[in-house]
Design goal:
Blueprint (H helix, E strand, L loop, with lengths): L1 H27 L5 H11 L5 H11 L6 H13 L13 H36 L4 H15 L2 H16 L18 H10 L1 H26 L3 H8 L4 H13 L1 H9 L1 H6 L2 H6 L5 H10 L3 H29 L7
Length: about 325
């Protein structure tokens, strides 16, 4: 097992480097760069010194150098913890991401906890009560939950909240705490607001978990060893939760590993609709504006979370199912 983990960790390094190279190339593919976008913005405002300012910024951010040279300098600095500066915000990338990362993790982990805590028990109930009224109702709601995109649900919540309660559930803080430093009062205010975006993000995830858990458990319940466990006189609850669910949960564990990147990125479109100060909207804006170092740093972080999540999922499968061995 230890040898397997070491081999996977060694394979992670070239994987992340390849993703970084491809991501940097894709960001550089569109014509121009961020300063081209910024130049049009300045000229539209009537700035007569726009081209001189752009030339100074181009030299400051080394955009007058070849792309490969900027890439290798960025990777070398990245290894030392310097992720470069954001062109759009004129701030270090580390500072920009750090300001939003904690809130993104809080929203993402809460939504994942809601999805798993609700989705798995409902999926088990639906599978063990196949073709009942409850099963049909759950299946219908799960289909709707999977089919409706998260940003549309966010819009529905906004309209319903404003029409019925006179309150639009946007942001994570009250206006009085948005720019305030962290304190106990600000944490309490965050807890009052965070459940709305977390619930919206969790709805589609819960629906997917219900459908996957129901389908897998229905297959497992027909396997011979489950029938043998029943024949030995084990209680139905023990047969379901100790034997059948542990096997049926395999695909969900693998999806949990792939969801680790979601903890960093959050739900991008939903974050824009709800005006959340998370990393998702920041990442989309960086890609759209060709803010190379900010977008590239996000890409590497997502790649790291993905490969680490897959490794943790493989290890967790050994704990869930003792039949799996990596010797």
């Amino acid at each position: 097992m230890l040898r397997y983990i070491i081999e996977r960790i060694m394979a992670m390094i070239p994987t992340v480097l390849i993703i970084a190279v491809l991501g940097f190339i894709i960001i550089e593919l569109p014509p121009g760069d961020y300063l081209t976008y910024y130049l049009h913005d300045l000229e539209s405002q009537g700035n007569m010194n726009a081209r001189m300012e752009i030339q100074n910024l181009r030299m400051r951010y080394a955009l007058d150098r070849p792309a490969y040279e900027r890439f290798f300098n960025w990777v070398a600095n990245f290894a030392r913890g310097d992720f470069g500066d954001s062109f759009a915000y004129r701030k270090p990338v580390k500072q920009l991401i750090g300001e939003r990362l904690l809130l993104t993790i809080a929203v993402s982990l809460l939504s994942m906890a809601l999805a798993w805590g609700i989705g798995i028990p409902i999926g088990v109930y639906s599978a063990t009560h196949q073709y009942s009224f409850g099963d049909h109702l759950i299946t219908t709601l799960a289909l709707i939950g999977v089919g409706v995109p998260g940003f549309l649900l966010a819009l529905v919540f906004l309209v319903a909240g404003f029409q019925w309660f006179g309150y639009a559930p946007t942001g994570l803080f009250s206006p009085a705490f948005e720019g305030a430093s962290w304190s106990l009062s600000k944490v309490v205010d965050l807890l009052k607001h965070i459940w709305v975006p977390a619930a919206i993000v969790a709805i589609s995830g819960t629906a997917g978990l219900v459908r996957t858990m129901r389908a897998n458990l229905l297959d497992v319940l027909r396997v011979n060893y489950v029938q043998a466990a029943r024949a030995k006189g084990l209680s139905e609850a023990k047969v379901i939760w100790k034997h059948a669910v542990r096997t049926a949960i395999h695909p969900l564990v693998m999806s949990l590993g792939m969801s680790l990147a979601f903890v960093v990125s959050g739900s991008e479109i939903t974050g824009i609709v709800l005006n959340l100060p998370t990393t998702g909207p920041l990442y989309l804006q960086a890609v759209r504006q060709q803010d190379t170092y900010l977008a590239g740093t996000f890409l590497i972080l997502l790649a790291l979370m993905l490969v680490i999540g897959n490794l943790l999922a493989d290890i967790l499968l050994v704990i869930v199912d003792p039949r799996i061995r990596y010797d």
